[in-house]
Amino acid sequence: MSATGEVKRPVPPDIRARKGGTPLVVLTAYTTPVARLVDPHCDIVLVGDSLGMVIHGLPSTLGVTMEMMILHSQAVARGLSRAMMVVDMPFGSYEEGPEQAFRNAARLMVETGAAAVKLEGGEHMEATIAFLTARGIPVMAHIGLTPQAVNTLGGYRVQGRGEDATRIRRDAEAVTRAGAFSVVLEKVPDALAREITQAIDIPTIGIGASADCDGQVLVVDDMLGLFTAFRPKFVKRYAELGQEADRAIAAYAAEVRARTFPAPEHVFGEKAPGK
Fold this sequence. Notes:
This protein is an alpha/beta fold. It has 11 helices and 8 strands.
């Protein structure tokens, strides 16, 4: 801690150094109030492109734009003082090639203050990740189920079962070679996630993977019970805030219709003379 009492926020080398140590805690956030709630408890706060579905009601992450990611990341940044912020690169912003990826990643970091970007893909993204990291842009990789490729994967299916495990292993090795400081393993078998975690020298962050990963990430609206359109198997509900909100809103509506709200303590009278 500095002389001013300011907490030192982790940077990507700090996260990489946590390999094999105390598991990393990662949650998503998309707004300033939620960022303030998760900040004291998390090592990393991810502004995920899941905001397309969770906040904007889109059917997938494919409709998320750079402008949406920047707007939400700026809001999250205002609520963070301890955790490191990582921002997802949206679909279409990096797949064309390393130069396109650099331009958009640099824009995300400059306009939001993010410490790193996250992008999806393994072997086929190795050159892009290497290009970015060589130019000062830290990359969190993401392999296994990659939601931006949902149409080519045939849905939100478990990846890496049977012979397909070889592909996931190669992806993990490729992003490690390329210089990623960590890698998200999404929806892969427990044993494969454990094997990859032991085999590579960067932290693995699981989501529907294994408790033996070097960290875990969940969508905050999922674990709080706020997003209820569907519930993946890997989500544990730590609260049911959606149900609580429904009860509260119903109570408010009933009191308005019964004219019991606002009550006398919620309204203003005339100011007394001389006061």
